[in-house]
Design a protein that fits this description.
The chain is 35% helix and 23% strand. It has a single domain, classed as Beta Polymerase, domain 2, CATH 3.30.460. By secondary structure, it is an alpha+beta fold. The chain has helices at residues 5-20, 49-65, 96-102, 104-107, and strands spanning 24-30, 40-46, 72-74, 81-85, 89-95. Belongs to the Iojap/RsfS family.
Length: 125
């Protein structure tokens, strides 16, 4: 099984939104073979709590524009690791320190990556 076209559309929209707010290390995984509850994960990082919140706001705004509403959101108050669950896609926006510590890429490395659009830039230092 692979991620649905709808899930990939959500990933692409969320990745563009994160890129617009200068997110770092933007990557997406097709987790549909590993998890029954979602098709894809999108990971993005911010350098501080304010940037994490700005990325989250932009992702939510852009996904709302295409009719997607989050089922739940966790972690926004702290701004260190925000999880936004859209059913088909779960977006993780992490502070760089949390990203390094929890290393979700390592956990999901056996899952295929989802190619992101060419206009998505990971804004590395």
């Amino acid at each position: 099984m692979t991620a649905t076209d709808h899930a990939v559309e959500l990933v692409h929209t969320a990745a563009r939104a994160a890129s617009d707010k200068l997110a770092k290390q933007i990557i997406a995984f097709d987790v549909s073979d590993q998890l029954a509850i979602t098709d894809a994960f999108l990971l993005a990082s911010g350098g501080n709590e304010r940037q994490v919140k700005a990325i989250v706001d932009e992702v939510e705004d852009k996904l709302r524009e295409i009719g997607a509403k989050p089922i739940r959101r966790e972690g926004l108050r702290d701004g260190r690791w925000v999880l936004i669950d859209y059913g088909d896609v779960v977006v993780h926006v992490q502070h760089e320190e949390e990203r390094s510590f929890y290393a979700l890429e390592r956990l999901w490395r056996d899952c295929p990556a989802i190619d992101l659009p060419a206009d998505v830039a990971s804004h590395e230092r």
